[in-house]
Specification:
254 residues, mainly beta, six-stranded antiparallel β-barrel, 3 helices, 6% helix, globular, secreted
Length: 254
């Protein structure tokens, strides 16, 4: 995982020599994972621009509402959502986005990735099926012990240093990492949780931002930022969803 948005990089040219300059922490990816079925993560959403190129992930929480990372929606770059498919090369429907709302206290220039959460409304309601389902939100008092196994999923690049989205949904099993250990390596706040593999080889990174950190089918975290992707002693930070339940419920009908 590239260290953070402080390092500005030129992203890979996409389609007709279209290049986008973006900060490196914007799109985290799956490293060390395996191909996943959409039925395993039926709440997964792929956000894209007008070209259909995957940019960020998200989690469906009802039939027209997605929870994602605020840093994915700092501008008007993303226009469409795709649900219900694991392989983005297959036939799919692009759902136009109606509105997005970033957390009022999210301000990267002042506070980094603190409060990195956003709600996105779709222009139409999806029809639930085995491939499209909302994810459960956690209880406000949920406690997740260190070393608890969790899962993250997304369409991010699978090769460190190559900023090209995966065509297929990937997931990876990782573990909750002690917050104090994480604090020694990243600029985290108490509104974040950390996960990964301190031995290296399993991680989220470019392309996975906004996607879920799951515990038994419950959304406990949102992919936010991290250190070097998949490297030893390099955890990733996730927005702690349980700290934002009131905000989510307050803004679910924007």
């Amino acid at each position: 995982m590239i260290s953070s948005k402080w390092n500005i990089v030129v992203l890979v040219c996409v389609l007709v020599l279209k290049c986008n300059i973006a900060s490196a922490g914007k799109n985290l990816r799956i490293i060390g994972g395996t191909k996943a079925k959409i039925e395993d993560h039926p709440w997964m959403v792929s956000f894209s621009n007008g070209t259909g190129y995957h940019w960020c992930g998200g989690s469906l929480i009802n039939d027209n509402t997605v929870v994602t990372a605020a840093h994915c929606f700092e501008d008007d770059y993303l226009k469409y959502a795709v649900v219900g498919v694991a392989d983005l090369r297959h036939e799919k429907t692009f759902i136009p986005l109606k509105k997005s709302k970033l957390h009022e206290k999210y301000d990267y220039l002042k506070t980094g990735y603190d409060n990195d959460i956003a709600i996105v409304k779709l222009t139409e309601k999806v029809v639930f099926s085995s491939k499209i389902q909302p994810i459960r939100l956690p209880k406000h008092d949920i406690h997740i012990p260190n070393e608890t196994p969790v899962i993250t999923a997304g369409w991010g690049t699978t090769v460190p240093g190559v900023e090209m989205a995966s065509d297929v949904l990937m997931d990876v099993n990782i573990n909750i990492i002690d917050w104090q250990i994480c604090k020694e390596r990243l600029l985290v706040t108490e509104r974040m949780i950390c996960a990964g593999d301190l031995n290296g080889g399993r991680d989220s990174c470019q392309g996975d931002s906004g996607g879920p950190l799951e515990l038994n089918g419950t959304l406990v975290g949102i992919v936010s930022f991290g250190g070097l992707c998949g490297e030893p002693n390099s955890p990733a930070a996730y927005t702690k969803v349980s700290d934002f339940l009131s905000w989510i419920h307050k803004n679910i009908d924007i």
